[in-house]
Design brief:
This protein has 151 residues and is α+β, with helices and mostly antiparallel strands. The protein is built from 6 helices and 4 strands; from the N terminus they run αβαββαβααα.
Amino acid sequence: MSRRERDRIGKQGGAGKQGSAGRQGGRGPAAPVTVTVCRGCCCGTQEKHPGVDHAGQYERLRAAVGDAGRVRAVKCLDTCAHSNVVVVGPSSEGRAAGGRPVWLGWVLADDMIEEIATWVHSGGPGVAEPPGLLDLQQISVSRRVGEGLPG
């Protein structure tokens, strides 16, 4: 059941699958879209990307995503050739629909931050297609690297 359908049912007073405690099918709270931002190695450094306000970019992303998802920074995602790297992970709903984490490389411009936030607000991987030019920023990573994503 999509978020839109749950909202419609809730407004009509129906029971729906999601209970009042925010649980889906008794399996615990639904997980939001997660945005993991590589920071601390070469991603996010002035040495590799002079002139980019990395700290400001991260704060703008957090503010733009707001309550629609979770934004976190990690030290290194081991894909330094594509820095700055951001991984957009699906919500519970997106994963149930077949969505998988999407790795984005060269996230350096503010318009990309806005597109990532728009995607999170639209539901993220498995629920909505990436907006704008984000599909051109997708990178492939090895299974070893992909499985090493924290959390």
